[in-house]
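Worked example 3. Consider a protein that binds zinc ion.
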Amino acid sequence: MADNSGKTCAICGDWHLHSEYEYGNRVNRSYCLKCNREERTAYANGGVIAAQSYREQKRAAWKK
Ligand SMILES: [Zn+2]
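Given these inputs, the predicted complex is written out as structure tokens:
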């Protein structure tokens, strides 16, 4: 039961286990692993503005 804890991702709004927020030598990040990967892809393609608009679009889908 100890591994049954988690939180909501700040980008996609889905609930994940804490293990999904441990990457890049850091723990307890704000985004899940999948969102971080997609944000990095957006950044690689379009820089800071593309990464920001990716986050805003994903948030707008669930945050009202
Ligand atoms: Zn996410």
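Take a moment to read the result before moving on. The chain has a mean pLDDT of 93. The chain has one domain: 6-60.
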